[in-house]
Write a sequence for this structure.
């Protein structure tokens, strides 16, 4: 039986203005998974992420982390946030130190690590996100894309067990978007879980072990990354398109130009291999 990081039961969140962002949402998040969260703007994705990190409290319902009820006192939240790192869509909401190195170092320095380990983790995170050359630059001199990479590096350096990213490629050009996706492939290990929200269905289809589709504060789908794209009604309801690899393979199968054997290709390379 797979070990659970999170078990969410009947979670509802209502903001002070009366907006209900999550509606009786139940969800289990397993250890070691790569999970892509899809849905249009306003679906409730960011609200859900803030519950996983203890930033928001449920209006009703409960959240368990590693089998323990999430509590909202300082001690518990500090423990939770050492294990669950989140990168917000807007990097300005989490960058506050004077320069790049200081900001990336802040989290690791609060983890009771040795100075040597902090230095090693910060160097590695800067290298992974290609911000080493920016390390002495003041945060307010950075572009949006640079800030985004620094925010990712700051959480990456802390080596959390659950790594949450809210639209990690938003504000990045094509080169750095692709680089971030490569980082996510590289850092994933069997005992870690990565959860990200994205509008890029092509990446989600290729990368994820599981896909969650949200709409209007509810979960429409939680399962494997292939089955969901056969469900035309669900895709229309959630305003999702099919990944081009999936759609191309479907057309080729219908025209009998591709053998109907084995699993659907999930990457360009897998599709091209079948065409050979």
């Amino acid at each position: 039986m797979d070990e659970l990081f999170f078990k969410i039961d009947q979670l509802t969140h209502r903001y002070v203005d009366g907006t209900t962002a999550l509606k009786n949402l139940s969800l289990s998040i397993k250890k070691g998974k790569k999970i892509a969260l899809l849905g249009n703007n306003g679906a409730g994705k960011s609200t859900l992420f803030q519950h996983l990190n203890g930033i928001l409290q449920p209006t009703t319902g409960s959240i368990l982390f590693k089998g323990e009820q999430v509590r909202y006192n300082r001690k518990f939240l500090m423990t939770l946030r050492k294990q669950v790192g989140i990168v917000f869509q807007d990097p300005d909401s989490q960058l506050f130190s004077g320069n790049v190195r200081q900001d990336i170092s802040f989290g690791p320095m609060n983890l009771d690590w040795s100075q040597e380990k902090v230095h090693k983790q910060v160097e590695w995170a800067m290298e992974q996100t290609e911000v080493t050359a920016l390390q002495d630059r003041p945060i307010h001199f950075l572009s949006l894309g640079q800030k985004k990479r620094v925010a990712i590096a700051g959480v990456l350096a802390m080596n959390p067990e659950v790594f949450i990213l809210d639209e990690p490629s938003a504000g990045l050009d094509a080169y750095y978007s692709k680089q971030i996706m490569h980082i996510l492939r590289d850092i994933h290990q069997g005992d870690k879980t990565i959860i990200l929200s994205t509008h890029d269905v092509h990446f989600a289809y290729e990368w994820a072990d599981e896909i969650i589709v949200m709409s209007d504060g509810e979960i429409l789908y939680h399962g494997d990354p292939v089955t969901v794209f056969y469900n035309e009604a669900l895709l229309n309801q959630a305003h999702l398109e099919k990944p081009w690899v999936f759609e191309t393979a479907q057309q080729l199968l219908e025209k009998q130009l591709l053998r109907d054997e084995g699993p659907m290709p999930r990457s360009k390379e897998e599709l091209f291999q079948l065409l050979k």
